[in-house]
């Protein structure tokens, strides 16, 4: 459970970083709509370290959070960052706060991610299709087994009954 304390009247609330264990002011934590207190569980410093470690080697680092470039791409601070680029958009349409090389790296990264997601979606589609087909086959087989049993029972009943020949 996260600990939160109010310091003296008029001062900012503090929060315990679940990574480094330090008690820091809320301003030292990024916002998070998923959190009950509206802040991430790691402080900004620990979050930067965690993100840097998770980034593939050679990948461009995002701009520092306190720079104008960061607020231009952070959805919390800029609704335009949520817009989907239109088809045919060129690099000249991009925000001026990001350099051309940064934009190229970002676009390449997004294309690679999209290709991976599309591949995962195709694999999931095939898996779901195969599962549904198997379930249908099993259901049909079960119905056929029941029907065959009913027909077989009827044949046995009829063959056990004495046949009546009409004598004329």
What does this structure look like?
It is a single chain. This protein has 168 residues and is mainly alpha-helical. It is elongated. The protein has a 3-stranded antiparallel β-sheet, with no helix packed on it. It has helices at 44-54, 68-73, 100-160, and strands spanning 4-5, 14-16, 23-25. Residues 1-6 and 73-91 have low confidence and may be disordered.
Q: What's the topology here?
A:
Layout: E1 4-5, E2 14-16, E3 23-25, H1 44-54, H2 68-73, H3 100-160
Antiparallel strand pairs: 1-2, 2-3
Which architecture of the domain at 11-54 does the CATH hierarchy give at level 2? 2-Layer Sandwich
The span between the termini is 97 Å
SS element count, helices? 3
Structural class by secondary-structure content: mainly alpha
Strand order of the largest sheet: 1-2-3
**What number is the mean pLDDT?**
75
E-strand count? 3
Shape: elongated
In CATH's first tier, which class of the domain at 11-54 applies? Alpha Beta
Largest sheet: 3 strands, antiparallel
Please give the share of residues in helix.
Answer: 40-55%
Gyration radius over CA: 33 Å
Oligomer: single chain
Strand content: under 5%
Say what the CATH topology of the domain at 11-54 is: Wheat Germ Agglutinin (Isolectin 2), domain 1
Low-confidence sequence ranges: 1-6, 73-91
Taken in chain order, the helices and strands follow as: EEEHHH
